[in-house]
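Workshop exercise sheet. Pairs work together: one partner reads the sequence aloud, the other fills in the structure field after running the prediction. Swap roles for the next sheet.
Pair: D.N. / O.F.
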Amino acid sequence: MDDGKHGSCKVAEGQPLTILMVAQLAERGRTWNRICQRLTRILCIPYNFLVIEDRRQLSNSLRRKLTRLGLLTLWTALLAVVGLLLVGVEISRRYAHALAYPGCSGPHRAPSDVGISDYQEVTIAVEGEIASSGRLELRSWWAPSKNGAAVLLIPGIGQARDGMLDQGAMLARHGYGVLLTEPRFCAGPDVVFTAGYAEVGDVSGALAFLYTQPKVDSNRIGVLGYSSGGATAILSAAQFEDIRAVVAEGNFYNLGHDIANAGGNNPLLARIYQHTILFFYRYYTGVDARLISPIEAIGQISPRPVLLIFGEHEVSSGHAHGQLAAAGEPKSLWIVPGVGHGGYIQAWPEEYETRVIRFFDEALVK
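Structure field:
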């Protein structure tokens, strides 16, 4: 019975469950309008249609029409939500597929284009389970060493072996042997990429090649990687003590946490999509992305030196200071002014050369 004091409403028997629930909420106090308005933003149902204050004022025919309208609107809203979820799942699947199979762009340049005249075309063999298909052959360029030291360069996702040619030319000018290998996703369209997990095996193959070079001292090998290549550099150095110095540019700190934006203020729908990406990434690669974690591995490199390079606008997203804190001594961080992700050597060529060559000279030459 409506006593007129609390804005309560009487609902006829047989009405949809959603209407009964709304009516019960209305009987609890004076917040009916605010409750209805919030609900109707979600369901897109004019709340005035849901408040039937007097059964006597509406004919049975009109009530039935309003009921059908409410049901139709509810089903439309539910279908829209389901459709939105399905679209999000497909976008998440494609995102995960693009991470696992990024495709190869290039090479578009050769070492001769950047002043490296003395170089060879070589092939790096990767054996065993780490090759996914049993065996990989990674096409590479090798510029022989003139100072007894060598640096392996690892490009980022989507790049080819020419992705770090500018850095290679700089190192070659200073007498370093330079090995530029193609990422495994360039070895074939069906080869899965794991952003550092399996690529540690590729680095092992590259080290085996460098051991065979007569002008390279096996105790004077460094690695320089960009983005996912920087992550691979850290993960590899944590496993292989023969890597005596590491420069990592703009690498993620933990792939799974990066995908899920761990610690961020993520809306529910965003969290669903992020964890869907993680699910599909594991489906495609067989690897839990949360296990690909440079920030957990970087501390194992000490007492060998580490230089981290991050653009000013990626310091937070890359957890640059957190990675620096996790690393053991000796360690250093260069935050490149005015730069986002990548383009460090192009933005500050002289400063880049000074810092990186000094770092490798102190670790590998002196």
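Discussion prompt: Confidence is low (pLDDT under 50) at residues 1-33, 35-55. What would you look at next?
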